[in-house]
Design brief:
By secondary structure, this protein is α/β, with parallel strands linked by helices. Helices cover 58% and strands 10% of the residues. It is built from twelve helices and eight strands. The chain has a five-stranded mixed sheet with strand order 6-5-4-7-8. The protein has a two-stranded antiparallel sheet with strand order 2-3. The two termini are 45 Å apart.
């Protein structure tokens, strides 16, 4: 029992350290996630800092037996809050990016996410009810050489198993992505751009023809709510939009729920945000990662391959403004 308590405490501490550091390293993504989970607007900015600090404080308290009960209680409060928030949005039929571990492992929330948090909450409750157990140092001091070897072997086996599972899941994800990309390759330069009509965050229906009106070219920029690199790019795009709108339609396309796209538009005071709920338009243009962009000329033909990342997208905007509508292809990076 005493060894089990120590192992559970250390496991929870590692989970909360990774979660806290991940959120601190990607504050824009954390801010978006808080907005997606209905945190009041006036509390979002303080929570961007306070939430990861609370996770790190709980992790630190769990390490030491004198403070482990406080750490377990704090962990239980945090996990219960996460479960309530996740359940509320999932019951509404939404699946925002949970951003549980920052950009280390950011994916749409699901009932699996709720189950994971329930397991962690049970472990925190176990520590809170059964007591902190011995300190790690005293436990190791009382252990024989054979027991120490067994503990080390178990730790290495757990690490190897976790790493193998992670690599297997990543391999499956990459195979799936490559398979999808093979069935929807980027449009050739000079080909007619796929037509579409999408709702906008302002409540209108906008077509490609609307964007190309007044003999303007158009840059479609695909961004995702909860995507850290996208959040860093959006303020720059807003500044570009104010200066190029008469010459170039700089339009954002956001795959995902309408509420997420509307929150994105509101947060960054953007007007030209189109909602691509099933990511259909995004995939028709051969785009599988965000942030990415593609240039469509005023005659409705594709004039660039998809480009990915802040620098490449800004370069594409400059090329379009300079009238160089056939930039060198830049491969998509997911």
């Amino acid at each position: 029992m005493s060894y089990a308590l120590v192992i559970v405490r250390l496991f929870l501490a590692v989970v909360f350290v990774v979660a806290g550091v991940g959120k601190l390293a990607d504050r824009p993504g954390t801010r978006q996630a808080l907005a997606n989970f209905d945190v009041p607007a006036h509390l979002i900015d303080p929570f961007v800092l306070l939430l990861p600090l609370a996770e790190l404080a709980a992790a630190t308290a769990l390490v030491f037996p004198t403070t482990a009960l406080w750490g377990a209680a704090g962990s239980l409060i945090l996990l219960t809050s996460f479960i309530v928030g996740l359940t509320r949005v999932l019951r509404r039929g939404e699946a925002p990016d949970c951003h549980c571990f920052g950009q280390l492992n950011s994916k749409p929330a699901s009932w699996t996410t709720v189950a994971r948090n329930l397991v962690l909450a049970l472990l925190a409750g176990f520590v809170a009810l059964a007591g902190p157990g011995p300190s790690l140092a005293s436990g190791l001091a009382r252990s024989s050489a054979t027991e120490l070897w067994l503990i080390a072997a178990a730790a290495l086996a757990a690490l190897a198993t976790t790493t193998s599972v992670f690599l297997w899941r990543e391999n499956r994800r990459l195979r799936s992505t490559n398979g999808r990309a093979a069935t929807s390759s980027p449009r050739q330069i000079g080909a007619l751009a796929p037509q579409f009509s999408l709702p906008s965050a302002a409540g209108q229906i906008v077509s490609l023809q609307d964007l190309l009106a007044d003999n303007r070219a158009c840059i479609l920029t695909f961004v995702s709510p909860g995507c850290g690199p996208c959040a860093a790019l959006l303020p720059e795009l807003a500044r570009w939009h104010d200066t190029v709108t008469e010459r170039l339609a700089l339009t954002l396309v956001a795959p995902g729920e309408a509420t997420q796209a509307e929150a994105l538009a509101h947060e960054h005071t953007l007007t030209d945000v189109l909602i691509d709920e099933q990511a259909t338009v995004m995939h028709e243009y051969g785009v599988w990662g965000t942030p990415s962009a593609i240039l469509v000329a005023s005659d409705g033909t594709v004039r660039s391959t998809p480009v990915a990342g802040h620098v490449a997208i800004e370069s594409l905007i400059r090329l379009a403004l300079n009238g160089e509508t056939r930039p060198a292809p830049v491969p998509v990076r997911g």
